[in-house]
Amino acid sequence: MRKEWMKVVQKLWRTENIVELTLEGELVEEVERPGQFLHVATGEKHVLRRPISIASYDKNNCQLTIIFRVEGKGTKWLSLLSKGDLVDVMGPLGNGFDISRVPLHAEVLVIGGGIGVPPLYGVASEFKKRNLVTKHILGFSSKQDAFLLNEFQKLGETFLTTVDGSLGQKGFVTDVTLPTPDYVFSCGPSVMLRAVKEKYSNSVTYLSLEDRMGCGIGICYACVCSSNHAAHDKKVCVDGPVFLANEVVLT
Amino acid sequence: MRKEWMKVVQKLWRTENIVELTLEGELVEEVERPGQFLHVATGEKHVLRRPISIASYDKNNCQLTIIFRVEGKGTKWLSLLSKGDLVDVMGPLGNGFDISRVPLHAEVLVIGGGIGVPPLYGVASEFKKRNLVTKHILGFSSKQDAFLLNEFQKLGETFLTTVDGSLGQKGFVTDVTLPTPDYVFSCGPSVMLRAVKEKYSNSVTYLSLEDRMGCGIGICYACVCSSNHAAHDKKVCVDGPVFLANEVVLT
Amino acid sequence: MINLAVQLPGLSLKNPIMPASGCFSFGREIGELYDLSKLGAVITKATTQHPRIGNATPRVAESSSGMLNAIGLQNPGVEQVVSEELKRLASYDVPVIVNVAGSSLEEYVEVASVVSKISNVHAIELNISCPNVKDGGIIFGTDALVAAELTKAVVAASSVPVYVKLSPNVTSIVPIAKAIEEAGASGLTMINTLLGMELDRKTGKPILANRTGGLSGPAIKPIAIRLIDEVRRNTSIPIIAMGGVETVQDVIDYLSIGANAVAVGTAHFKNPWICSELIDQLPEALASLGYSSVEQCIGRSHDHEYLLSR
Amino acid sequence: MINLAVQLPGLSLKNPIMPASGCFSFGREIGELYDLSKLGAVITKATTQHPRIGNATPRVAESSSGMLNAIGLQNPGVEQVVSEELKRLASYDVPVIVNVAGSSLEEYVEVASVVSKISNVHAIELNISCPNVKDGGIIFGTDALVAAELTKAVVAASSVPVYVKLSPNVTSIVPIAKAIEEAGASGLTMINTLLGMELDRKTGKPILANRTGGLSGPAIKPIAIRLIDEVRRNTSIPIIAMGGVETVQDVIDYLSIGANAVAVGTAHFKNPWICSELIDQLPEALASLGYSSVEQCIGRSHDHEYLLSR
Ligand SMILES: Cc1cc2nc3c(=O)[nH]c(=O)nc-3n(C[C@H](O)[C@H](O)[C@H](O)COP(=O)(O)OP(=O)(O)OC[C@H]3O[C@@H](n4cnc5c(N)ncnc54)[C@H](O)[C@@H]3O)c2cc1C
Ligand SMILES: Cc1cc2nc3c(=O)[nH]c(=O)nc-3n(C[C@H](O)[C@H](O)[C@H](O)COP(=O)(O)OP(=O)(O)OC[C@H]3O[C@@H](n4cnc5c(N)ncnc54)[C@H](O)[C@@H]3O)c2cc1C
Ligand SMILES: Cc1cc2nc3c(=O)[nH]c(=O)nc-3n(C[C@H](O)[C@H](O)[C@H](O)COP(=O)(O)O)c2cc1C
Ligand SMILES: Cc1cc2nc3c(=O)[nH]c(=O)nc-3n(C[C@H](O)[C@H](O)[C@H](O)COP(=O)(O)O)c2cc1C
Ligand code: FES
Ligand code: FES
């Protein structure tokens, strides 16, 4: 883990309110897995950093991308950065999706909802490098909120859902029914994760959780969640953000 | 008075910690006199603007210059601006130096100390336009803090003092003794203004005062000073910053 | 059409936005920037019986997302406030709330009784919480019994409804608020500033001549929201909220927690047009939440739980 | 050479900088970033008799130049703190101050008595000011008599000096500080957080599951400076200051107003190396004021006036 001023080398509006930034810096060397995240400072008025997942990374060029939706003041601030600007970043943080234990012949289903989609692109890309073809279900509110579609389609069969039916199947990601996969990798709003956990209880299911964070490194106890063993005994920032679905209690 | 995002069109380091910014915007049209000031916002963490004098202005090009010393957080923030940046400015504010009543044959002495020098450059320049040649005494801490020397020398005879003697006469501006002028225009630290008031009690002496400000427009009562008539009956921001020396009580 | 109007005791507000006491003076300067008739109301600078020269300067200092002030109730005294300031404000179609201060019960009563008779004065804001002068009222604002006694006396003397301005510098605000409600106040305004100090980098000494000053601005907003939440759930009279309002989201937050109207102080210093701009932005902000009136937004944090609990 | 050392009851500090309770856990994570022996001291997370699971999440929210937390004293209980956390800290050359919390006098006494016997524990910080749990001690921190009684009991039970952490959520801090001093406390730490609330933009409801939380960060610094000024001028025991420290200038400010050492909390979340960096910067900051030791800087705001007045 490092703290570094990373340089914005590219900025792209993916939708009306979703920005992709490509950042350059030495901490990319330390990235181990898709699903790890950065903790990003957003100006002097904000005492807390913002956790944003690493969507993809390129160790050769010391570059990575983050994709975020403009939600409140911090992401608004980030969205005003331009090429060449420096941004104060800590990372990589968290465990990420461990795909190394997945056998090469396994059936892998990737399920992403909304702004949970970006880290899964890293997952699918890493599988691709290992010649494992993933299937994807991506859910969005509506057509104009959808992004990364082409990118996922290139990596494997991709099913789309939108709440309003403006693109793909109308409904939620769990309304798409496919043969039970061996592994599920998922990230998205907690209501979606709960539904995914239930629907894919017979698969090995990895979920990336979200929680309000303070430090991002395990010292503040802001981001706790409960395992099956004890209440509040896991920290999303260091024990997660990725957990096996049947290990954690989803609230 | 307007509130406007002015554009930085030039930035110049005058000394190691004194910056000159040339700003462009429509509020230049409203500038009436040298000695008026701008109230400049310095980032989201700061709820107060910073009062900075207009050093010179060019109505034809809608440009003006401010010259400030990096003191604390706000001026530090300003010093990080670059050409092309926009800065949130309110102004012009205050009365400024009224030179219109000075007869053309009058003897005018301009006395500036440290960061009080910039608005006096505007005074001397305006007199020059009216073909009145001013004399100047400029005081600094030491040689490396001195600035605008050439500019003043072009406008009239210029005497220099430094506290450590590294440039000009060693001592204070009031250690230079010249024939009693008809008019004195002065700006600088309050201890200097007190000495100037005393030394030039037989001249018509205009002093530009400094005080911590809130609003800059007369609504908060932060910047009061006392006249000879009553305590705290003047506001530096609207009744000043320029006062006749014998009208105000200097503290 | 979004209905911005709010009805409060003595105050028929076009909209819930008004300048806070001391950050608007008596409206002369801001009246040159936009038409004050646009405002929900105006709250004047503190008015005392006799003219006051206030504290020595420096009177303001800055802190992270906040500022300290120790103006010390400088004002021209009630006579001149009536003859000049209130008279000028009468030319606008806007209800005036006069902020009344004093160093004795008698002074409060006297000033309230005089100003409340002026026709454009629709309410009094009783300033029992100014932290910046020794005899400036904070003694009246930190003790429930004293606050109630003063409120009772001023309510009796005033021809218009009395709103009492609460101090946040207390261990428990609820007993004080309740005592004031029972004493007959028509409403509460909150919060006044928190007592703070800033030091000069070079000397290490306090920047303010008064040593301490009142902290205002966005820094104090979470404290104000918490205090208003406590008071809202334990009293029934209307609340005019203030503390760090800069954006229309801040206005929505105060309405949500149960305030009936919102005053803007410190933000005037960076942007004297702030109230006018917030009034323009409010309809869209309410609409985006699905509301068609200010009234619908008031208290949404509570799910009406506080209404039921009474 | 600038002398950074500070001698306090029980604590021989290499320098006056230490992490504040709850913003450093027990040092495991930050110990991976730099050598903790560099610190003046460490203050641990709150420790209670039995393990506590703390409050529901969300537990943090942000505000302008500040944040709210309602962790709720989550900790593994004194047994595990002793067997694991304090043991690990013993491998560093740094005095440990254990922050002790509880819901009854008996619990405080029990925990203090246990931890104070551990050899690397050089002092106890009595947390009578946690605003985030109903039974978390703030009741002990807002009443002078109760605070004094608790202090007395813990001082009697503890084998090391006891520092008491004051709550800023009070009308008058001086009577409480004085009562604690008289009850035998060796020092004071101040301030704990101010009670606040933040609302969710979309729902209008409190963000924190606990509804309210403690406000920390630069926003509260002027309040902390003012409270320390009051307490410094009215008590004689040392003060460890905290509240919004981010820069070495903040450290200088707290020393100037009379604090003997300075703790850093919230700033760890943006920069976990903050204490180490401040320690590196302190000599130059002191030198630029003409001081050759920390001791010379302590209390410079007062011109020794407060020493004379005692
Ligand atoms: C491990 C992890 C990975 C994430 N990855 C991404 C990503 O790749 N792309 C993306 O768009 N978003 C991601 N998020 C959510 C993102 O952190 C929030 O949208 C963001 O913090 C909102 O900040 P703001 O200042 O715009 O909102 P504000 O509401 O102004 O933020 C106020 C505070 O609340 C926190 N906060 C608000 N919403 C959330 C949230 N949903 N989750 C966590 N904290 C929140 C902020 O961090 C900040 O501390 C991730 C969250 C986590 C925990
Ligand atoms: C009418 C007027 C004209 C001025 N013109 C100039 C100029 O042309 N060039 C220049 O360099 N300086 C000028 N000053 C002084 C300038 O305003 C301060 O140096 C500046 O405000 C310091 O801000 P800061 O954030 O760097 O310092 P900080 O100490 O961080 O500021 C904290 C607060 O104190 C106020 N403050 C601090 N020092 C002063 C001061 N000396 N006077 C007034 N307020 C202060 C700041 O405005 C701010 O509100 C002028 C002041 C006034 C009143
Ligand atoms: C410069 C200044 C002067 C003030 N004067 C008064 C006053 O005279 N009477 C009063 O009741 N409150 C006074 N206040 C307090 C404000 O009305 C308000 O309660 C407080 O500043 C919080 O709101 P804000 O954060 O929007 O400024 C003053 C505040 C400031 C900043
Ligand atoms: C996340 C968090 C947890 C805290 N936990 C404790 C605690 O367990 N015990 C305690 O006495 N203070 C606790 N505090 C208060 C801090 O020790 C400190 O008094 C306060 O935050 C002010 O300092 P700061 O502004 O530097 O954070 C906590 C603060 C934060 C932000
Ligand atoms: S964010 Fe601090 S422990 Fe996880
Ligand atoms: S700065 Fe507000 S009255 Fe002058």
From TrEMBL, chains A, B:
Protein name (record): Dihydroorotate dehydrogenase B (NAD(+)), electron transfer subunit
Subunit composition and interactions: Heterotetramer of 2 PyrK and 2 PyrD type B subunits.
GN (gene name): pyrK
One Gene Ontology term of the molecular function aspect: electron transfer activity
Binding residues annotated for [2Fe-2S] cluster, in chain numbering: C215, C220, C223, C237
Record text on cofactor binding: Binds 1 FAD per subunit. Binds 1 [2Fe-2S] cluster per subunit.
Pathway: Pyrimidine metabolism; UMP biosynthesis via de novo pathway; orotate from (S)-dihydroorotate (NAD(+) route): step 1/1
Superkingdom per UniProt: Bacteria
Binding-site residues for FAD, renumbered to this chain: R50, P51, I52, S53, I67, F68, R69, G74, T75
Organism whose genome encodes this protein: Mangrovibacillus cuniculi
TrEMBL record, chains C, D:
Location in the cell: Cytoplasm
Keyword line: Cytoplasm, Flavoprotein, FMN, NAD, Oxidoreductase, Pyrimidine biosynthesis
InterPro entries: Aldolase_TIM, DHO_dehydrogenase, DHOD_1B, Dihydroorotate_DH_1, Dihydroorotate_DH_1_2, Dihydroorotate_DH_cat, Dihydroorotate_DH_CS, Dihydroorotate_DH_I
Catalysis: reaction(s): (S)-dihydroorotate + NAD(+) = orotate + NADH + H(+); (S)-dihydroorotate + A = orotate + AH2
Cofactor: FMN
Family note: Belongs to the dihydroorotate dehydrogenase family. Type 1 subfamily.
PANTHER family: DIHYDROOROTATE DEHYDROGENASE (FUMARATE), DIHYDROOROTATE DEHYDROGENASE (QUINONE), MITOCHONDRIAL-RELATED
Name this polypeptide is given: Dihydroorotate dehydrogenase
Organism name: Mangrovibacillus cuniculi
Gene: pyrD
